[in-house]
Amino acid sequence: MNRTLTKLLNKEHICLQYREFEKDLLGCYYSKNNRHLIIINSLIVDDKKLYNTILLEELGHYFTSIGDAILQSHNSCRDNLKHLKSENTALKWAVNFFIPTSELLAYFNYKFKWLFWSYWRLY
Predict the structure, then answer these.
(1) Where are the chain's structural domains?
(2) Which DSSP state fits 93?
(3) Contact 17/6 with Cβ under 8 angstroms?
(4) Is 26 exposed, middle or buried (0-12, 13-18, 19+ CB in 10 A)?
(5) Measuring CA to CA, how many Å separate 64 from each of 50, 70, 114?
């Protein structure tokens, strides 16, 4: 696991556990009585990129979620929208944490120049 993520889990007192879920469920975040738990599907532990992505997204729930947004088959349309918004917010947090805006802009700036120069053969 990434050292930065390990430090963050320890600093925030978040427990990390592994369980074998159905393959559609890769991770989940649970909080009750000021105790926080992230559970990662044990089937993805060897896939470091996927593992770190799921762990970051679940950490995003810790930092951005208020209340319960668990998707269930009997949820109303409003509950489904609340769940999707919660997932989107957590994923945005993960991206912003893992990729600083300055690095992202520098990358796109570099790629744009390269594409422009290669298209017009201005190198």
Answers:
(1) 3-120
(2) H
(3) no
(4) buried
(5) 21, 14, 36
Instruction: Look up tokens 């609340």; give the residue.
Output: 82
The structure's pTM equals 0.74
Pick the CATH number of 3-120 from 1.10.238, 3.30.2010, 3.30.1050, 2.60.40: 3.30.2010
- The vertex-48 CA angle with 56 and 104, nearest 5°, equals 55
Neighbouring-strand partners of residue 37: 15, 30
Q: What is the pLDDT of residues 77-112, one digit of tens each?
A: 887 788 788 888 999 999 888 888 888 788 888 777
Q: Establish how many alpha carbons lie within 13 A of residue 46's alpha carbon, considering only the half-sphere containing its beta carbon.
A: 1
| Strands annotated E in 25-96 | 27-32, 35-41
Alpha-carbon gap, residue 7 to 93, rounded angstroms: 17
**Mind listing the pLDDT tens digit for each residue in 42-84?**
999 999 999 999 999 999 999 998 655 565 666 788 877 887 8
Give Rg (Cα) of the chain.
18
